[in-house]
Amino acid sequence: MSNTFRLGIVFTHPTQHHAPLWRKLNQQPGISVTALYLCNENQTSGDRHLGSSQPWDVDLTSGYEYEYLKTITGQVASKISKNLFHPGLFARLKPTNFDAVFLPSFYTLSYRLTVLLCKLRGIPIIMQNDATIISDDHYSRARQIALATLYPLMYSLADHWISSGDHNAIYLRHYGVSDAKMVRGCYPVDRERYEQTIAQGQDEIQRIRRELSWNNDTILYCFVGKYIARKNPFEFIEAITKAHRVDSRVRGIMIGGGELQAAIDQRLAELNGEVLNIGFVNQSQLPLYYAAMDAFISTSQFDPHPLVVSEAMAVGCPPILSDRCGNWGYSDTVQHRYNGLVYPYGQVDALVQAILSLTDAETRRLYSERSQEVFAGQDLNTELNAFLQVINRIRHAKNRVAEPNPDFANV
């Protein structure tokens, strides 16, 4: 009998944040990882929400076993959908194949089928999401009542939870997940890839900075993400414009794309270059752009755990974010006035003051150092260790079941 722990992953598609985790887990002694993907989004075409047709240009499928499951139509889906249903899960999810299965949510039909099959077949379920009470707050009162009834039942189906931050842990407890079921982790960012890209791209970083700056005194603040309503990009534009009137060194850089692209371009055309829209930047180059910036801003109306904040911190870019983002807290990604600033969503003048406070070079230097310090405790290795803790718990529980009861050993 093999002592290898066989971890199954049921996930929508390969992502730049989780694929390196599957690879690293698979490198651990006594652990094998197999990912069952529900679609190939970002691998054959771009992120439709970013308005890009370019697939991700970093390796997301080497170093571990994976398979693209076919839907009920017999095809591999090309995009995420709630209705994704994969009959192949019936044959794959068996105790003879996996010692535990990880999935992130109940969003798709196939996720729900995964939970059902694991419960029926006695396969331990590991879950992690990035949800927070903050992100649930925009729901209607009727939906919140429904969630209060359904989520405790649904979340109790998971045997183990990995929390992704302070607000996420509060959220899980709110919906009935006990501390005994929880291990603290994070949403992973591949620090090794970022550090390697930056070490090899110093000349390119300087070229980017020269290209985006008016002069050597320019202070660059970046917005990275989807140009959609809940990301609230116009608050970024208005705050940068106001801050520039006070300090002419301030300039905003927007990286991304999406449905608000035309409206953003129209607004920027009315300005005098205070904000530039770079558009889509692929994964291999994104660390270089972060490294060329002086500060990062997330203005989201609601955003459970925007990983762009962690990406910026990985290169020492100090963050400013709205209090409607879910990754700030005493021991979370952004710790107010320690490594970054949190401002009240919708209060443009408060954001302007935060921007102006980071025009001070010494404050930026201090927050930059502390951002890298905080991120070092929330990188890929932190999430790896959380998974290893859960795997050890499952192994120990299995061993206890297999041990004979001493009261009946000699019967």
Automatic annotation (TrEMBL):
Alphabetical list of InterPro entries matching this protein: Glyco_trans_1, Glycosyltransferase_grp1
Domain Glycosyl transferase family, first and last residues per copy: 206-369
GO function terms (MF aspect): glycosyltransferase activity
UniProt cross-references to CDD domains, sorted A to Z: GT4_PimA-like (cd03801)
Pfam families for the chain: Glycos_transf_1
SUPFAM superfamilies on file: UDP-Glycosyltransferase/glycogen phosphorylase
Protein name per its UniProtKB record: Glycosyltransferase family 4 protein
Species of the source: Thermocoleostomius sinensis A174
